[in-house]
Design brief:
The protein has eight helices and 15 strands. By secondary structure, the protein is α+β, with helices and mostly antiparallel strands. It folds into two domains: about 140 residues, Elastase, domain 1 (Roll), CATH 3.10.170.10; about 160 residues, Neutral Protease Domain 2 (Neutral Protease, domain 2). Strands 4, 5, 6, 9, 10 and 11 form a six-stranded mixed beta sheet that branches. The protein is globular, with a radius of gyration of 20 Å. Bound molecules: asparagine (ASN), zinc ion and calcium ion. The site of zinc ion has 4 residues, from helix 2 and helix 3. Belongs to the peptidase M4 family. This is Peptidase M4. It comes from Streptomyces cellostaticus.
Amino acid sequence: RYQAVKTGTGNTQYSGTVTLNTTLSGSTYQLYDTTRGGHKTYSLNNGTSGTGTLMTDSDDVWGTGSGSNTQTAGADAAYGAQETWDFYKNTFGRSGIRNDGVAAYSRVHYSSNYVNAFWDDSCFCMTYGDGSGGTHALTSLDVAGHEMSHGVTSNTAGLEYSDESGGLNEATSDIFGTGVEFYANNSSDVGDYLIGEKIDINGDGSPLRYMDKPSKDGSSADSWYSGVGNLDVHYSSGPANHMFYLLSEGSGTKVINGVTYNSPTSDGVAVTGIGRAAALQIWYKALTSYMTSSTDYAAARTAALNAAAALYGTNSTQYAGVGNAFAGINVGS
Ligand code: ASN
Ligand code: ZN
Ligand code: CA
């Protein structure tokens, strides 16, 4: 039967009040966005398998903004999926994670007090835990964008999730998760080069990761060294996150949306940024045209240079910027 597209209201936990496209079926609204590949948001109701139940509502107002309301995580997840879809479509012309016009689906309320979120290629779905205490779901924009970008990486370069390629896989998710956060231009969850700054995973308000100087988290590497691939992939991502920050914004001190960054270079040579928009285009083209499952840091530099050459030419400031940003993390010179 005919199902109308409706404009619902999401009272999210991290992104304020947002508009969500929903579907009216009979007299019940569904958290089902037919305008973006058919994205559905389900609640696992603390279960750990299957799809649980499609989220439904009687008045098309979802959540209260409080993490203790069961609909709130659904509102944040649906918003994250929507902004991630729009980011890829409008920034790169990519239509969904597989570029086939078909949306993944999202599941919230996975297990109990689960402090993680994950993409799963086998279900082609996104899953979010409720976080510590069950009230800090891992549904912020950068986390949603990070996790769904794992699906994009799987369906393109296929970077193997270990050694240096694993660090590059993780960094790609941080880079595009950050791209999603800036793209959304949300006044509650503003764009920054921090990862997970809204979900309070450390319990002290600090972010999970810092792209300007990854070692600020106490574990990540700022620059490449032989053996960096032996770190956990969430720490060997550091040099690539740092390279992306340098390429976008340059080295030294800079204030963006009220956050102060201070990015060093491994050799002390200052780097000038080329802007985030160009840096995103270069990384996306490198990922989708030049990287393979076994790409390491040296090969990532070549891939990014090839991407910059294809997009802007070898005499461009963007091409020179890639070389300088990689030199700033001790890759090439
Ligand atoms: N949240 C984690 C990540 O995206 C899940 C995992 O262990 N892969 O890296
Ligand atoms: Zn990840
Ligand atoms: Ca962030």
